[in-house]
Amino acid sequence: MSSSQLPASTPPAPPQILFDEGDVERQLLWHQNRLQSRLDGHQRRIAADLAQFHRLDFYKLSAVRVSGGHYTRPEFLSELFRPLLADGRERTLPEILKCSDEIHDRLAKLGIFSHLQMSLAATRDDPQGLEALVKVVERGRFFLKTSTDVGNGEGALTGLARVRNVCGRAEVFEASIGLGNKTRASCQVRAEAPLWAARARGELAANASERDFSGFASCNETSKAVAARLRTDTAYGAHELSYELATRTIGSLLPGASDRLVVASTQPFSIRQVAAAGPNLRSAVSLSWIRDTRDQTVFPTKGSLLKLVQEYAGLFGQTNYLKMTVESGFVRPLLSTSAVSGLIHPLAGRAVPFNDRFQLGGPTNVRMFQMNSLGPKDRSYDYLGGEKYWATGLSVLAPIPSKPDWPLKLHGFINAGSLFNDWQTLKSQKPSVALGMGLVGSIQDVRVEANVGMPLLAQKSDGARRGLQVGLGIGFLS
């Protein structure tokens, strides 16, 4: 039979679905096996690449070659890898592998690549020379997004436009606008870029916002600010140095705004007095340090958190104070505990502005109290905040009986805290304490709580809340 008479080849049949779509467990098992097969193949390729090298011999990492970076400048990548290649010393294979891991981490932290694949190859002219070959796939440069965001007790409709790798050096340019129930309107423009061979990142930002304070004070705040930040990660934690210049204005007073002078700091003030003073200029430099070893942020099961923030406001403008906050937490599979505290020390006899004072109370910190309803209050309605505070919590998180795979968890808690201005008040005033239980879930990276409880101890001025309380946010007191 001639070749022209051969029957045409039948195309392969489409792959059959190996699971019943209604059987969730079988679908999950199928995906797990598929992922494990890919991981096994990747490990076999790595083993094949390393089989030609002897573990105890010495090698020299002579070059790093990156392919697939169409928009990333070669000179930028050279700066990134130069510290690893500059010494030119010979290394054992485990040391070479450690260097390749560092190369991978540096590229991944840039945030401009969606895929990274590394391998080692011998150089042609040097039998002891090795090259790190990196295949990358760049992420899309342009990104547009509209979303409904919830967090820290408020919701907002936001629009975001982002351009990555603007000039080929892993820069990010971003602009966003938002409309919400508490932050009524906001806009921000920021630019970010890696510095010093990506060992740090610098950021410049400008923003404006209008915030509704009527939930705890009879006013709104309008602010405009510019800021510069420098961030770096080390083995001991993340550090950030920032400077911010902002002008804030209190306005849109409600009829019930306080007009009496209340001794709420080193100098008495009222909401109407703050509004009549006009814009407040704040020039502040701050330094923060965070060490977070938790396995996740929404439902952590192990690890700890320690955060320190120090701020000085008074380079120029109407503010002059020192401010310090401390936050800590400790997590185990069923139990977690956390504590926060803060202190503002006025300088040059100036009162701490209402905008910069601490606020406490609400579903994300001391539960079963209304938002920002602890601490000094005038005779009518306004909570004026305080210069010192502390709060602590203990919570138990457990799966629902007979439903361990549900995304909802049972939650029990006890919270305590106090907001005040002088140390004498701390000695004479009992803390506000609340106890409750409820259900906890998550929406993406936002934690959602629905709790039922009651205050055990409360001051006469506290905004105590009994019954159901719903909380939305990212950071919660235990």
From TrEMBL:
Keywords: Membrane, Transmembrane, Transmembrane beta strand
GO biological process: protein insertion into mitochondrial outer membrane
A Pfam family per the record: Omp85
Membrane topology: Multi-pass membrane protein
Localisation per UniProt entry: Mitochondrion outer membrane
Domain Bacterial surface antigen (D15): 165-476
A Gene Ontology cellular-component term: mitochondrial outer membrane
Family of the protein in this entry: Belongs to the SAM50/omp85 family.
Name the record gives this protein: Bacterial surface antigen (D15) domain-containing protein
